[in-house]
Each structure stands twice: as structure tokens, then as C-alpha cells.
Design a protein that fits this description.
mainly alpha; two-stranded parallel ribbon; 11 strands; 46% helix; 9% strand; aa-tRNA-synth_I_cd-bd; Glu/Gln-tRNA-synth; protein biosynthesis; aa-tRNA-synth_I_CS
Amino acid sequence: MTASGVRVRIAPSPTGEPHVGTAYIALFNYLFAKKHGGEFILRIEDTDATRSTPEFETKVLDALKWCGLEWKEGPDIGGPYGPYRQSDRKDMYQPYAQELLDKGHAFRCFCTPERLEQMRESQRAAGKPPKYDGLCLTLKAEEVTSRMAAGETTVIRMKIPTEGSCDFTDGVYGDVSIPWDSVDMQVLIKADGMPTYHMANVIDDHLMKITHVARGEEWLASVPKHILLYRYFGWDQPVFMHLSLMRNADKSKLSKRKNPTSISYYSALGYIPEALMNFLGLFFIQISEGEELLTMDELSEKFDPENLSKAGAIFDIQKLDWLNGRWIREKLSEEDFRARVLTWAMENDRLMAGLRLSQTRISKLGELPDLAGFLLKSDLGLQPSDFAKIKSPPEEILEILNTVQPDLEKIMEWNVETIEAELRAIADRMGKKLKVVVAPLFVAVSGSSRSLPLFDSMAILGRSVVRQRLKLASQAVAALVGSK
């Protein structure tokens, strides 16, 4: 433990591209640790076995390292309270679940997914918020034993008080009171034996001696469940701090459906990590006009966790662009700038892979910018007219783009082979020839109908950039459809 005793953590789930919201929460914890002379810990919460992948875990670690964040303990470097990956801690949770059962704080539930869905539909139809109705709460021990012996699938749920409220003080929101009758009987251990987030994060935070839990405000409503678990186990609870969500300019929640949210997207477009951290760090400090350009050390000096805003943090891309430009012009020497450009161009093998694909497709080097320049562009500047030469009518092009976008999100590992397989499957599902499906994708991804091989290009650009380019292409084609 540190002299201050402060230990904080970031605990991302490796279920997709690392989100700028993860960097936002991680930065707060990092600055909090630096401010108090404490320790910043990284833990991987991969309890969702169906969506968590090693590829996404690697992307999380790489993204946070790119941001300039350093952790004292984590799955990549170990530490005294490991393992730091929840799937590696699976056997640790069972004794605690059994303790809750033995003490009467939890119960086994045999309800099927079908029965639970019918229950929720009935509750919604009655205008009630859906939550577990307690059917298995009063099962006798003999029935539980016999049903388990018969091989019935079971989960473990926590018991919730029926009266009163959970009252606590949040580090940002102050005094909070949540009625117990609004709290669900949360599943703690799933049918596959893995803990849910609520169970695992409380146990892990206790065992890792976490003193302060800082996370997004969407978790505020879950605090009663967590406090109850601390009480059931007889443990001291940490200080909770719930940070306002990052939002778009129209105050809507920042989501990949509206705007690029992946850290990898901003890295690929040539934003520098110091500028992104500077931009996110301004949400946590009070400054005067003209003091916006701050290093990590300067952010740490000005950081004041006692004076945080509850107002939504607005992700203003124009301000980020402005800060990034200032960092490039004012903070980088000529030598630093050249090094950054080369590092960026080589990221994910973008430049070398592009050159390999280009070599057999050009007759002189001067053709390279037109052929492969799209790999390095931040914006293709797509116009409706760019799609006019495609043989398919605009309505069919729009259908293809709108079908491909969500289907590509299903790809677990993003590479040439998986991209090709998914696009072939999409063509089959749509009842179209592959060449009909890929024709508008060439334009959407490269800005031209003559380009490098599509599947390779998509793999090089990365999921987050492809996602944004397809979205912009859909908007351009929608304008073409609307003008008819």
C-alpha cells in the first residue's frame, strides 16, 4: 500500500473497440492517484465470455498505453493482488457465493430465460419497471437440492430488503437515496459459473484493496447492490464517485452510432495522445481562458476531485481539433514532428501494407497518392456524385450500406479473411452477387472505384475507421436517394 493508502482502478471489458469514454474514466483515476500519491490499477473484466476476446483485450491495453497512461499493477505486468483478469479468477468467486447462500443473503433461481422474458413483458405491459418477481425466493432447501441433482440450470441471485432505502454519499453527487423496492434481485453467479459484473467487481475491489471507485454515472443506480454486498460480507466499502457521461453537442449520449468513439479511430486519423488527454483532462479542472494547453503533469497539478461538475462533459470535436493543432504547432519540435508522422504512418503496418499492395498496381511512383492515399486520409470528402457511376440504383446502394454496417460489427477478429467471409455471407443473405455488394464499398472506403483490394484495405484501415466511412457513405447516398 502507498503512504496515502489510495488505490484506484480502471476495469474495462474487452468486448469491443476501446471507447474514448474508457480513456476519460481511466484518466480521472490516473490523475486521482497522482494527486494523492496513490496507485492506479488496471483490471480486465471479462465475465462476458461470449463477447470478450483476447484481440479486444490487446486493443484495450494498447489504447490505454497509447494514451500515455501507466498502471502499477495489471494483467500484463502482474502485481501482489493478481490475477488481474477476471476469467483467471473464476474459482475465487464460488466460496463467496456459497457464503452468501449459507448466510441467507442469496438464493438459487431456476427460472428459464423464457419464463423471465414473459415476466418482463407482463411487467412492461402493466407499466412497471421490469425486475425479478421473487418466484424462487421461497423455495425450500429440499426442493433446491433435488432440482440441482436433477441437473436443472441454476443461477444465484442476491436478496434485497423490502423496505426503506439505501442512503450513501457520492463523491460527485453528494447525498443519494435510492428506495430498495426499485433495486432488482441481481444475478450474482451465472449458469456457466462466472460471476456477473456486480459480484466480481465488489469482490475484486475488496481483495485488491481499492479505496475509491470512480466510474461513469450510469453505474450510480447499481450502488445499492454493491453496498449491500459489502454489508453482507462485513467489509468496509470504498468511496464511490460517479462522473458525468460524455455527451454530444446536442446532449445525447456519446455513441458509435452517432459519432466515432473508438480510441483507435482518433489514433488512426492522426490525433496525438497528449492532445486527446489534454482535451479529456479539461473536464476535470478549472482554468482561465488561455490556459487550455496542458501536459499530463500540469493536468495533475490543477486536478481537483473536490470540485467536479455534474454537467455532462461535451465531446466537442472542433475543440479537440483545435487542441490537437496547437499541440502539433506549439509543443512538437521539427524532429518530434517528423518522428510522430513516421510513427503514425507505420501504425498497424498501414504504410508498409499499403506499399506492398500498390507495387503491382502502378507504373510510376507518382500514381501512389491517388491509389493508396486513402489509407492516410482523415476525411475522404465523399459526395453523392461519387456513387453515381455505380450500376446499382441509389436505393439498392443505400440498402447495401445500411446492411453491411451492423453486420460487420459482428466480426470478432478483424482481418482480411473474416472480412471477406462476412461480406460473402452478407451477399448470400441479401441474394446479391458479391460484386454488387462490394462495388459501393470500394467508393465508401477508398473514395474511388479504382483502388487497392477492398478486403485488405478494410483490414488495414481498421474497424473504427471503416465504420465511420460507411456511415458517411450512407449519408451521401441518402442525399442521392432524397434528391430523386
